[in-house]
Amino acid sequence: MQAGVFRVDITPPVGIAMCGYLAREGVSKGIERPLTATCLVLASGGAKIVIFGCDVMGVFEPDATIVRQGVAQFLGTTPESVLINASHTHCGPTMRRDYSWESHQQHAMQDDYADSLRESLLMCAMEANKRLQPARLGTGCGEAWIGINRRELDPESGKVFLGENPGGPMDPTVGVIRVDDRGGRPIATVFSYGCHTVTMGPKFLSLSPDFPGPARELVEHATGAPSIFLQAAGGNINPITGIGATEDDSADMIRLGNILGAEVLKTAMAIRTDKRRGERVIFQSLTRNSMYPWVPMEDREMRLGAAGETADLPLVDPPAVEDARGIVAQREKMLDEARKEGRPVHQLAFFHRFVDWARFLLREVESGKRKLTVDVTLQALRIGDLAIATAAGETVVELGLRVKAASPFAETLFLGYSNGNVGYLPAAEHYPPEGWSPWETYQVPDMLCQSYMLPMHPSPEASGILVDRSVALLRKLL
Fold first, then answer.
1. Closest by alpha carbon to 54, among 122, 140, 1, 112?
2. Among 4, 10, 39, 36, which residue's Cα sits nearest to residue 118?
3. Are 81 and 306 in contact (CB under 8 A)?
4. Residue in 57, 62, 60, 64 with CA at minimum distance from that of residue 94
């Protein structure tokens, strides 16, 4: 096998709007740590796999497809073999120009950044490919309990809100891929974990990778090689410290990052790629003794494979035209009232977003559409005995656990936020018996189709389709 790695700085200019909290109290005013994109290229047997870890909220369509196709063309592989994973940092730049209330200056900055990001990712892959060298690879899993399920039930209203649910599903798995040169010296360390990157809250106005930043730094200081963070199924998982509530929660960010980085190091240091434990040897000195010498690792084929498809996931049926018009009127009235109350600009963004979404919903309904769907990019990669399944959405932890449990591979990682991001993809059991209403403003983000400009939220059967199709892709790689 051969491997090459390269990193680029993708920090946008200060002053760009920050994505992740709709009601953020201002635009970016500084840089806590640079935002980066790191690319690992693996080659074996004529196949190539390309893995990006990016410090952004998401790499959305059509940019994800453009980059994957460009990388595939220049590196001689297939788009299905290219993985672009976003850390989902909430202290990154606004990535999409569908915030109608923002200024022309902001729209121009965001457009320029999208152009530069595409170019940076393509260059990063080409440079990583130039650095291909003979390599070996090993994998392992650790555990870190820095996340907590955030779907808390309010006993008074009977509704779920954004809180803490210690008894809820949680996946502590820290997946680790160690890539070394032939002498066992690290080339790169890849690690995955599923948790929202929100230790730095909406009052923090500096660009930052959040806790993956200090986690990577710890690993890189110890190994002397780049590390890549991959966001797993963190759609309903928050840091145990909660969402940052002050102007600077960096102490929590560093604390959680170091816990995660330490577990990555512990796991990576238990992986040997150049030597293995040999047969026991008995020898005699003053007493009878035994030892297990370390012997060179035998070469073996590192099988690489990739598969992908677009899953057409159903959305809940939209309301009638009359109701859609009523929703528009309701949201426009709420915006007008907020303006009359003198709400600050950052709070008005919330009301603007719901107005934009309501008008979009009405256009979809007036077009005659009754069966709404959303295209979700799914992917499966094989790296030796390790499998990776990915989905282009904010997948909740239950979906990741189900794909891993049904996988035909002994070792499987599941990643959300990959190759695009269509929005929240909840599990069927998250839906209330009466369903989610487009008239209501919910306090739990599982159904916030408004934040991603989906006309309606995914239907309850969508999660089962995603799991089944993901497992089917994995089986293709056997």
1. 122
2. 10
3. yes
4. 57
Tally Cβ neighbours within 10 Å of residue 41. Answer: 28
Cα 444–442–230 angle (5° rounding)? 30
Q: Which of these, 258, 298, 257, 255, lies nearest to 276 by C-alpha position?
A: 298
Question: CA–CA distance from 383 to each of 40, 64, 179, 264, 289 (Å)?
Answer: 12, 22, 11, 19, 40
- For 3-56, the pLDDT digits (tens) are 999 999 999 999 999 988 877 888 999 999 999 999 999 999 999 999 999 999
Residue 159's Cβ-side half-sphere holds a number of Cα atoms within 13 Å equal to 15
H or E segment at 375? Answer: strand 373-383
The closest of 121, 62, 42, 49 to 308, measured between CA atoms, is 49
Amino acid (1-letter code) at residue 167:
G
Query: 356, 304, 391: which is closest to 44 by C-alpha?
Result: 304
Cβ(348)–Cβ(101) below 8 Å: yes
The two tokens of residue 128 are 């990583």
Q: Phi and psi at residue 86, in whole multiples of 5°?
A: -105, 135
Structure tokens at 466: 């995603």
At residue 263's C-alpha, the angle toward residues 258 and 265, to 5°, is: 90
For 211-236, write each residue's pLDDT tens digit.
999 999 999 999 999 999 999 999 99
Contacts (Cβ under 8 Å, ≥6 apart) of 401: 169, 171, 233, 414
Three-class DSSP labels, 94-147: CCCCCCCCCCHHHHHHHHHHHHHHHHHHHHHHHHHHHCCEEEEEEEEEEECCCE
CB 342 within 8 A of CB 329: no
Question: By C-alpha distance, which of 254, 159, 242, 141 is closest to 196?
Answer: 242
pTM for this entry: 0.96
CA 133 distance to own-chain centroid: 28
